[in-house]
Amino acid sequence: MTTTQDRTPDAPAPDHLPGQQPTGAILLDLARNNVRQYGMLIALALIVLLFQIWTDGTLLLPSNVSNLVQQNSYILILAVGMMMVIVAGHIDLSVGSLVAFVGAIAAVMMVDYNLPWVVALVLSLVVGAVAGAWQGFWIAYVGIPSFIVTLAGMLLFRGATQIVLEGQSVAPFPQGFQQIAQGFIPEMGPYTQYHNPTLVLGLLAVVALLVQQIRDRRRQAAHDLTVLPLTLFVAKCAAMAAAVVVITLTLASYHGVPVVLLILCGLVLLLGYVMRNAVIGRHIYALGGNREAAKLSGVRDKRVTFLVFVNMGALAALAGCVYAARLNAATPQAGLMFELEAIAAAFIGGASMRGGVGTVVGAVIGGLVLGVLNNGMSLVGIGTDVQQVIKGLVLLAAVGFDVWNKRRATTT
Amino acid sequence: MTATGSDETTGDVSGRSETAPVLEMRGITKTFPGVTALAGVDLAVRPREIHAVCGENGAGKSTLMKVLSGVHPHGSYDGEIEFRGGPVAFRGIAESERRGIVIIHQELALVPELSIAENIFLGNERSTRGIINWGGTLHAAARLLGRVGLPDNPRTRVAELGVGKQQLVEIAKALSKDVELLILDEPTAALNDEDSRNLLQLILDLREQGIACIVISHKLEEIRRIADSVTILRDGRSVETLPVRDTPDAEPELSEERIIRGMVGRDLGSRFPERRPYRGDGAGEVGFEVSGWTVRHPTEPRMVVDDVSLTVHRGEIVGIAGLMGAGRTELAMNVFGRSYGVYESGSVAVHGNPVRTRSVPEAISHGIAYVTEDRKTFGLNLIDTVHRNISLTSLPGMTRRGAVDEHREQQVAERYRESMNIKTPTVFEPVERLSGGNQQKVVLSKWIHAGPDVLILDEPTRGIDVGSKFEIYTVIARLAAEGKAVLFISSELPELLGMCDRIYTMSAGRLTGEVGREDATQESLMRYMTMDTEPKVRT
Questions:
Q1: Which of A196, A332, B86, B408 is the most buried (most CB within 10 A)?
Q2: Could you give the percent of chain A with pLDDT greater than 70?
Q3: Which positions in chain A touch B73 (Cβ < 8 Å)?
Q4: Are B403 and A282 within 8 A, CB to CB?
């Protein structure tokens, strides 16, 4: 509720202007509006710190960081797609089965039909998109709840996997295909202590980051919008740049950037941009926030819903290929419970069960929280049984914090 | 009997007479981070009194009621509350209900799939050792329904009841809690005339049974009809408490104008803005034309709109009057991209050119805008920000190389915040935190920015206060003066009479009349609106 009285037509205009707040107020505002994401980022940092100490520094060893990325890449890919599905107000329970199914198709194409791996990869993505379209059709155009359609898909694709593989594992894959999950970008140039292309990429990333931040700030200032005070802005940029530099140096002192990390970064940038800045991204948020209002505002609700599931299917296919490439085999049991990991990552990362809320970066943070927990607990020798218990509690705590925080915001 | 409670009774707590207030709130101050919602509000309600609370949106009415009912717990506000002679400090709604203070919100809190009886005793079940006593439940429910005058079987599902009857179920539920002070927030906002009348009569009956009542309402005529006194809030302060009538059965002495003056802090002069004629290109030409429009009910084999034809000239404001179920909204929504019902026949022309409106994007692309009667369900994404709600209809026009230009989006929002006088701390505020009038301004901004030639406004001032109403009328008049064709659907006849150049009337899906501004009166419109037309069954 606003507090000031509605102004009558000829009353004087209110004399407070937007954009002139003290620094403290701006910071407080930022913190309040982004509690969820900053909270999870801080939690992630604390978890990293905890395991870094607990494992005597093993967690952040360059080799383990590479491993961490490769180990979690397919869940992160799924989590990004899942976040979009959840924002649109739906759920997708079929992605684990779809991972297995697409892995199986790819394996059969490469091993039984000897197709070049690039062709197999592209066809696999198409298969995934078609599978997504199949589900999207029933959800968007027929109007069956996504929970039901994708529950059916979960059974359907799992069964189809077993049919395609005839109950057996299919392996091995060509070298090139394996590189998707296991490879690093090749070393180039003279010998330094570090991996040269990684240093170059890192540098480019820092430059791009700074350019983007500065341009954004200029544009905001040009439009008379509130900007961070200069000191804070510099601190923010420095912190972000430092983070990129640290990650770059860590990776560069091992084998360099994993191929799958490049893929992942590309996806996060692209889909993050789509969700934030593209019209369809806005329409996804609008649909999840209030389907009826969005429809009456001219949002093509069916088409948007359909596309969200096509996208999820394609991403599940990509995750399926990455997973198969990592195992160097397609197995009937691949991808079991992946849908739940992806859903958990999305919710830990700030998605709302009711739709309309969530960010791509949030999903990645949520996925990393789970990933670091997995990796760290394995390193210190905690059994998978206890790991499950702890991950369950983390999910509960993250969403519980969110609920508590929201309630506090509305009742005080 | 005196009307303003606080002054006379503060020193009178010990020997409470009949005039001692049953409820007294003193100096209630409630602040939210950054804003003061209530600043020293006083409110005193006498026994057996119907006490109205008025004020514009954002004046603090809802906050005050939340403080009273414990939604804002004791300790989160300053000031004192005395109920039935003793101080109270509610920490939650359960505590205030236990003392007999029950609030009925504008959005009803009933579970549609449960029966009337189950709803009445929800959370308060008649049971022994955890097992529901169905006989006792149904018996008690039937008795309570008798008290509120609802003849339905208590086993009926609430979903099968109309809003009017649901409202009565809410009151029965309150009675089941031995209510001493009933708070009604906009009780008639969603009701038609007949249901409103019944409800108001019930409130009067409850007073006879010794129940005091606080009514929050924007409908001043209603306040005059039932209230004994009225407290006016403005800007988070209680500006005055006025007696409405001397004795409970006397005629009201307080005029609507006097209440409005208290609410806005000055005389409003005219309730409607000056109209200026449009003299630009194509003045006097037909801007919007609907011919032979017929719509079938989505599930039943009957026509909800039957062969309706109407025209709106450029710069003209044309009203559609009708009772609930006359088919006005159905007509508008079906024309606007078949958003309701099944299209049977009819054609639409904008500026003389026939256009197709088979989907909402198609309708928008031909310059038609429909501003819904139900902004929360159909008009706004409540969890999203002001600026994103405003831009939603015109995103494709705000892109640079495929990306939404957020800075432009913000500027556009700032512009409308200024020109529409939208009260919000920033344009990044979630719309759900705005008051009703300001939410409505956001919906209007969104459609104005889509740049339509034709605006269909469906109950654009429903549930908003007098000051905001005037602002919205001003916007509508401005749109017409810019040469747009405006179709204005409303259930409030005075506003149609005050704003429109011509008024069509609808009854049971058909046009029953067309009246010019000069000839229109409430009586003539009402006659056309209630005209019997043949019930239509076609398959």
A1: A332
A2: 89
A3: 411
A4: no
A408 has a pLDDT exceeding 90: no
The C-alpha atoms of residue B96 and residue B44 are separated, in whole angstroms, by 17
Instruction: For residue B63, give the H/E element and its range.
Output: helix B61-69
d(CA A265, CA A257): 11
A294/chain B closest Cα distance in angstroms: 8
B401 at A interface, C-beta within 8 A? no
Which B residues in the span 232-261 are in contact with A, Cβ-Cβ below 8 Å?
234-236
Q: Distance, in angstroms, between A404 CA and closest chain B CA?
A: 16
Among B59, B437, B474, the residue with its CB nearest the CB of A9 is: B474
What does the pLDDT look like over B189-236, one tens digit per residue? Answer: 777 778 888 899 999 999 998 999 999 987 888 888 899 999 999 888
Q: Percent of chain A having pLDDT more than 90? A: 61
- State pTM to two decimals: 0.77
Contacts of A2 in chain B (CB under 8 A): 35, 57-58, 423-425, 433-435, 438
Is the Cβ pair A297, B382 closer than 8 Å? no
Chain A hits for B35, CB-CB cut-off 8 Å, are 2-4
Interchain CB distance below 8 Å, A1 and B382:
no
Identify the bridge partners of residue B397 per DSSP, sorted by sequence position: none
Location of structure tokens 């010019």 = B516
Comparison of pLDDT for A25 and A91, the residue scoring more: A91
Distance from C-alpha of B504 to C-alpha of A233, rounded to nearest angstrom: 59
Q: CATH 3.40.50.300 in chain B: give the residue spans.
A: 5-100+180-264, 270-367+452-539
**Per-residue pLDDT tens digits for B69-84:** 998 999 899 999 999 9
CATH number assigned to the domain with residue range B5-100+180-264, chosen from the 4 options 3.40.50.12710, 3.40.50.300, 3.40.30.10, 2.60.120.330: 3.40.50.300
CA distance A334 to A324: 8
CA distance B330 to chain A (A): 14
Any alpha helices (H) in A92-116, and if so which ranges? Answer: 95-107
Q: Calculate the average pLDDT of chain B.
A: 86
* Superfamily (CATH) of domain B270-367+452-539: P-loop containing nucleotide triphosphate hydrolases (3.40.50.300)
Task: Identify the sign of the CA torsion B222, B223, B225, B227.
Answer: positive
Nearest to B174 by CA among B223, B212, B228, B135: B212
Contact flag A279-B264 (C-beta cutoff 8 Å): no
